[in-house]
Amino acid sequence: MARDFDKILDECIDRIVLEGESVQHCLDLYPELRSELQPALERVVQSLSAFQTAQVSPDAKDLGRQRVHEAFRELEQAPPTQSSWLDVLFGSKLKVAGAALVLVLAVVFGGGSGIINASNNAVPGDTLYTVKRTAESL
Q1: What is the mean pLDDT of residues 43-49?
Q2: Exposed, middle or buried by CB within 10 Å (0-12, 13-18, 19+), for 103?
Q3: Integer angstrom CA distances of residue 1 from 25, 34, 78
Q4: Checking phi first, is residue 124 left (phi over 0); if not, alpha (psi -120 to 50) or beta?
Q5: Could you give the CA distance from residue 40 to residue 13 in angstroms, rounded to a whole number?
Q6: What average pLDDT does the segment 105-110 reach?
Q7: CA of 38: how far to CAs of 21, 22, 45, 127, in Å?
Q8: What share of the chain is helix, strand, coil (3-state, %, to 5)?
Q9: Is the pTM above the cut of 0.85?
Q10: What is the structure's pLDDT at 94?
Q11: 85 vs 125, more confident
Q12: What pLDDT score does 61 carry?
């Protein structure tokens, strides 16, 4: 029953906060829980009324806009960053290829060492016996 009450309370809070419904409307939906629901919902509404949206002065808005415009102008006037010939030719593809190469090498060396370790106890006739012999000969 407590779980159901919690679920209903959450639903009513969502209805009040997100959909703008009244406490009375939620209480009408669940008349059997009115005595428990009413004090909880009233506390929620009271807590929410303490949080009022901040009002920004027009001067502060203007100053903020001015700073944003100045930052954009500085970006437009800044010289372009120098690129290497690799960046010019391949762009971000080079970065992707480098990341893929690192991943492949990690899998090969990481997975390879795992297979070699797994083949340490292999005996003739086992699947990993050739791996063991090759590793020994290397």
Answers
A1: 78
A2: exposed
A3: 22, 14, 65
A4: beta
A5: 10
A6: 69
A7: 14, 11, 11, 72
A8: 80, 0, 20
A9: no
A10: 64
A11: 125
A12: 80
